[in-house]
Amino acid sequence: MGRHPRRKQKRLAEKLLTVRLALGLSQNEMLRRLGAEDDLLRGSISNYELGDREPPLYILLGYARLAGVCLDVLVDDELDLPKKLPTKLKHTHR
Question: Please, which residues have CB within 8 angstroms of residue 51's CB and are 6 or more apart in sequence?
Fold first, then answer.
């Protein structure tokens, strides 16, 4: 950990909200689909989508998998989400 705060992704919150809405899920349903209903409160999803808090990596990975996108598409401000979600991933898991 350094003396400087970690740089925040400017578009992450917007992308997380877009993914959830494209999937047609409520915040509670998103928690269930992420398998995080025992770990997080519904307010956590709201905080992530408003940019008030950054989600842990396992939540980001869950969003990416549900949307069918690579994790870098979510976290890289220079990359846009596909117009249609969910998509089919172009690579396979090993």
Answer: 8, 12, 13
Q: Is the dihedral of CA 16, 22, 26, 32 positive or negative?
A: negative
Q: How many helices (H) and strands (E) does the chain have?
A: 5, 0
Distances (CA, A) of 9 to 35, 46, 48, 63, 75: 24, 17, 12, 16, 6
pLDDT in tens, 13-25: 999 999 999 999 9
How far is 40 from 34, CA to CA, in rounded Å?
A: 10
Task: Find how far residue 71's CA is from the centre of its chain.
Answer: 8
Instruction: Say if pTM beats, i.e. exceeds, 0.90.
Output: no
Residue 26 carries which side chain, given as an amino acid letter? S
